[in-house]
Design a protein that fits this description.
With about 130 residues, the chain is mostly helical. The protein is about 50% helix and about 5% strand. Strands 1-2 form a two-stranded antiparallel sheet. A hairpin with a 3-residue loop joins β1 and β2.
């Protein structure tokens, strides 16, 4: 099951963070079709956010066809995204690179800027 982490200082709306983290879990294969998302109550207890925020995120995911709400049962994954498993060798290479970047004195924002620039160079458009 996915555990949401909310960054209140990111400038990104809380419901968008939930949507993004769910999509990331789908892309990495951490969530698969048939898996149940945490209930709104479980997310509220873990993150101290408003239940309506969780429901808004889940409605957005449902609108995109990624999840479906089943009355009285919860919200379940309908389909996966991407093909990058969490144990991919590419992930190990990226983790090594991030470790070296940190050792070289780069901050998180520096690493994010470099990574985004490389993504923008090699991937035209946003596939999500």
């Amino acid at each position: 099951m996915v555990e949401y982490r909310i960054d209140r200082h990111s400038g990104v709306a809380t419901y968008v963070q939930i949507v993004q983290q769910t999509k990331q879990a789908l892309r990495l294969g951490l969530l698969r079709p048939g898996d149940r998302l945490p209930t709104a109550r479980e997310v509220v207890e873990a993150t101290a956010i408003n239940p309506n925020t969780v429901l808004k995120a889940y409605r957005e995911l449902e609108r995109e066809g990624l999840v479906e709400a089943r009355r009285g049962l919860g919200t379940f994954v309908r389909r996966a995204l991407g093909t990058a498993p969490a144990d991919s060798p590419l992930r190990a290479e990226l983790e090594d690179w991030a470790r070296r970047a940190g050792a070289a004195g780069l901050e998180r924002e520096d690493v994010a800027a470099i990574f985004t620039a490389v993504l923008d160079k090699h991937f035209q458009g946003d596939p999500s």
